[in-house]
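YM 10:42: WDR64 protein sequence, as discussed on the call
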Amino acid sequence: ALELIDFKNALEQFQNLVEKMIIQKTKESSGLYAKDDDAIDYDKFHTTTRTLFGPAVKDQNIQAFFRKVFSNPDEKPEWPEIFGCFLGERDGMPSPSKESMVFHESQKQQITHSVVKRKDVIKGIVKVPLLHFTVTASQRGVLTVFSKQRKSFLSYSFYFHQDTAWITGCDFLPNLKYVVAVTESTVILWDYKSKEIQNNGFVIKPMRNCLLCVSTVTTSGHLAKDTILMGDDKGYVYLLTMTNDDFIMKQSKAEKESQFRFMDSESFDMPKRKLHDDWVVKIKYISALKRFASCSTDSISSFVLDDINRLEDNLPVKEFSVPKGVNAFTYCGKAKVIVTGG
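YM 10:58: structure's back
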């Protein structure tokens, strides 16, 4: 807390310094400025900035910031630029540093491999930090795992062919090591590790309502099972628990010319509860709070945040309403706040 207060004070003093520089340069341009002991030159700016932020700033960034202010005082630079963080590359500007004491920037790498065809779009993207890969799902049925190995990206794609149903979301099952995706009427489970072209996926069907979102419940409990949260277009939230045994005991024979083995949804104990009166747009298990959250375009039950056990009973849930509902939300652990977008 003290470090945060000190940084805010230092930042305020730095912004006051920049304001004085802009006023000075504006007066110089109009011929109204008389140089005195309070004049700010580069040496004074460098010394003051170094005193305020210490080794968190580099000489090249201080120089670039100073030059930018004096070359165009009408466009005030953003303060993150003093730490080497730029909103966009410009001619003559140094490249952003990979790491600084204030900001930690991940090194970006472009993936040139095309995972979707024309008229297809990515509907879900999930980062799996522990395994160093990213999962994507396209609307027309392409599931892809991008694995960062030896500083290069390897991709494994899986095409789910369907006549009418579109994929609406995806996630990763950390214990069972499966990719899960939902369509309008099915739940897809893909064994991305399988080397077989056929029979490397499972489909749970039929689902009575249209599934719109999916999320994995991440806990440090049982290593042989995973729990999945799903939301549909009728306001219901589902709870589906999968184990390794389910892939053996509940599978049906794959249909002809199909790469999937089917599971009957009726064979699963799948608790569900109506929490909203409209589409469940997004659902997420927030492990830091040990709560699940769901949002909807419903103006009354717009956002729900409660224990996962509420899906198996009829006790009241913690919720709040927003006019025209909530379309998105996220949780920040450092600030301990939830931000919603309507």
